[in-house]
Each structure stands twice: as C-alpha cells, then as structure tokens.
Amino acid sequence: MSLHRFANPARFMRLSAALLPWCSAAAAALIAIGLYLALFVAPPDYQQGEAVRIMFVHVPSAWMASFVYALIAVASAVALIWRHPLADIAAQGAAPLGAGFTLLCLVTGSLWGERMWGTWWVWDARLTSVLVLFFLYLGYLALVNAFDDPGRGARAGAILALVGIVNLPIIKFSVDWWHTLHQPASVFRLGGPTIAAAMLWPLLVMAVGFMLFFFALLMIRMRTTLMAAKIRALRLAEIDRLAAARRPAAAS
Amino acid sequence: MSPFRLLVQRDLRLALRQGGDAAMVVGFFVLATILFPFGVGPEPALLQRIAAGILWVTALLAALLSLERLFQADWEDGSLEALALMPLPLEAQVLAKCLAHWLVTGLPLIVAAPLLGLLLNLDAAGYPALLAGLLLGTPTLSLIGAVGAALSLGARRGGVLLSLLVLPLYIPVLIFGVGAIEASIGGFAARPHLLLLGALLAGALPLSPLAAAAALRQALE
C-alpha cells in the first residue's frame, strides 16, 4: 500500500517542514496578487457595480467550505478503514479551518446580499444548506472534543463526518434544483463558465491562494498536534524517570 | 421467534413497564405547541397560517427529546455488550431498536397531531398531508436520531451534543413535511413533498443502521 509511505509521522514532519515556507509564501503572494486584481483591475459589474468585488472573497471561501468538508470526510474514511494516525490528525486539524471558511462565506454573502438583494439574510436553499454545513462543522468539533478518550472522539467524529457528507451535493445543486434568489453556478457548469474572463482570472488566483493558505495552516496545525504529543510523551517519560530515581531513596 | 422480533418486544416491554416515555413525549409536544398561542397571540388567522410549521417543529423537538433513551440505558447497565453478542447483526439490532422507539414515541405524536391541529385552527385541507407526512417523516427522525444517539454515548454533555448533531440533519424532513401541508392547503399537490419524504425514509432505512452500528462498535470498544 503506497499510502503507508506517508503514514509515518516522522516523514510527515520532514516533508511538511520543507513544504511549509514555500506553501505559505505562495499563498501570501497569490492572495496579494488576487486582491490587487480583484480590487483594482477587474471591471465593476454592469448591474452590481463595485459591490461585485465581494465575490472574490465570497466565492473562494464557499468553495473552500465544501472542499474542506470533503477532505475531512476522505480523511475520516481513511482513518476508519486503515487506522491511519495522520488521517485523524488531518481531519481534526482541518475542521476549525473549514468552519472558519464557512463563516467567512456566510458573512461576506450576507454583506453582499445587503447591497444586492436589500436584505442581510433570506431563507434561500443555498444559504440554508451552507448554514447547515456550518452547524455540521460545529457538531463535528463538539463531538470530537466531548470524550475523555481522544481516540474515541476521533472515531465518533469520523463517522459523523461521513454521515454529514450527504449535505455537500445538496449545497452544490441547491441553486439548480430550486428557483431561488441566489444566482446559479457560473464557473463550474456544463458548457463552460458564463463569467467574464476579466473577472474569472482574479477569482481563480484567489481560489488557488485560498487553497494554499488552507494547506499551509493545516500543516502548521498538524505539526503542532504531533509536537504536542511528543512533548507530552517526553514529559511523561521525565516523570517516570524522576519517580524511579526517588523510589530507592524513599525505600531506604 | 426471530431474534429481531424478540428484540423489538423486549424494548417495547421495557418502555411500557417503565412507562412514561410515550406520555412524556406527547406531553412535551402538547405543552410546547400551546406555548405558541401565548407567544404570538391568539388570533385564529395568524395561528392558521403558521400551524403547519409549529406542529412539525414541536414534533421534531419532541422526537429529539426521547432519543437519549435509545441506547443510553442499555449502554449504562451493560446489556448493550450482551446484545452485541447476539447472533443478530448489530445493524439489524439498531433497526429493531428504532422500530420500537418509533412505536413508543412516533406513533403517539401522530395520534396527538390532529388534535393539536384543531387547537391551532389548521386548515381542514391540511390534515391528510399532516398525517401522511408524519407517518413518513417520524420513522426517518428515529433512524437519523439513532446515529446521533449512538455517536454521543458516553460523551460529556451528551444531551446538548445530541441536539447539535441531529438537528441539522433533521432539516430536510422538516422542510418537506411542512411543504406537503402548505401545498395541500394552497390547493397544490402534496404528492411531490410526500414522495421526497418517502425518499428520505428509503435512504435512511439502510444507511442509518450502518452508521449507528459502526458508532455503537466504537462505544463498545
């Protein structure tokens, strides 16, 4: 099984230490370029005016919200099937980030909606299903942290993540299935994107930047978890050593 | 007698002898519903407008309230471990427990719902859709709830956690349940909504026991 080559935490630490600076720098550069293109180069929309620029944050964070959930689900499946230790760490590390992207998506969408639809919130199918996604993230986080035994929390969370995956297709297709206020898909659709190229490029740059940003944060979180486990193990060993050193003295 | 029926009978007998489960659920359903006229005011027209939503939301919360009991007692006294040794697969056991749970809590809700509909001045055209929707929807609530109940076994603050896990997954049932009533009151066909409720049930029937059994195995490890 070639996957097991990456199962080794020590190899992950080496690999991520090498990748992390590049990933972070590329993320910072792409987001900076993307923001410049989005704020100064891209033309204002003929209907929406300048407010359309919210899209360049809103849409990538919406994509990330779904992508991160899918990643958690895949990592959970790997963790349940192969008991892969890094998969659990990856799923748990990704969850707060995914919740953050979902919140960002909801907040920017709300701001955009206030300008365009004249209301902060409507109970539209896509808005509602993204809100449900946010609660799935919160439920996952609460469940993972609800047990005294972290291993049990991780396994219970993995099952919940797989159950919650049913919501992802609902989010993707909600705008096509129901006639709602939210506009239908304009980038990933059959027959090619309907969005103008001058807007598509900044959007894609931002999306790749968000993706690299996420992976950089995920690597930091996973490395922190692994280091914390190592520090804990070292401390316990130190306590054992001290206790063993004191025992003969107490006996005499 | 098949082990499946045996398990259903055992759970039913336990629920009936201990008593109170069905009464508690219906009591909550009635009380929570009659809070609404106090909250929004007793105008018949307003109540008629929101009756379908009130009935479904309170039914959903009442079903949620009883979920904790689904595996908790068996888990605490160790009988869940004995049950896991039965020749019946754990998935089938979950199904049996859901059936018993639905008979004890779901059916009383369905019986009580039309009476509460009268209190809320629900339009007469809505009753068939209300009953059919609850009949299709409440088993789904028990099945989805079983996953949450199995996952939160032994967790700190299990009750609050359970509602956080289960309520987001209940939303589709709520949408189509209310949709069926609203459609038939408005003179449209309730059939599409009911078919979707049936589809949710058909999906939950095989998938929920799988997930719940996996969660129970984790809890028993």
Structure characterization notes:
With 252 residues, chain A is mainly alpha-helical. Chain A has a single domain (22-186, 193-224), classed as Up-down Bundle (Four Helix Bundle (Hemerythrin (Met), subunit A)), CATH 1.20.120. Chain A contains seven helices and no strands. The mean pLDDT of chain A is 83. With 221 residues, chain B is mainly alpha-helical. Chain B has one domain (3-220). Helices cover 85% and strands 0% of the residues of chain B. Chain B has helices at residues 3-18, 21-40, 44-67, 69-76, 79-84, 90-119, 127-151, 158-185, 191-220. In chain B, helix 6 packs across helix 9 (191-220).
SS elements, strand count of chain B = 0
> Whole-number average pLDDT of chain A?
83
Strand content of chain A: under 5%
Task: Tell me what the CATH architecture of chain A is.
Answer: Up-down Bundle
Distance between the termini of chain A: 55 Å
Assign an overall shape of chain B: elongated
Give a summary of the structure in a few sentences:
Chain A is mainly alpha-helical. Helices cover 77% and strands 0% of the residues of chain A.
Describe the secondary-structure layout.
The complex is a heterodimer of chains A (252) and B (221).
Chain A: H1 9-41, H2 55-82, H3 85-116, H4 125-144, H5 150-164, H6 167-177, H7 197-251
Helix pairs in contact in A: 1-7, 2-3, 2-5, 2-7, 3-4, 3-7, 4-5, 4-6
Chain B: H1 3-18, H2 21-40, H3 44-67, H4 69-76, H5 79-84, H6 90-119, H7 127-151, H8 158-185, H9 191-220
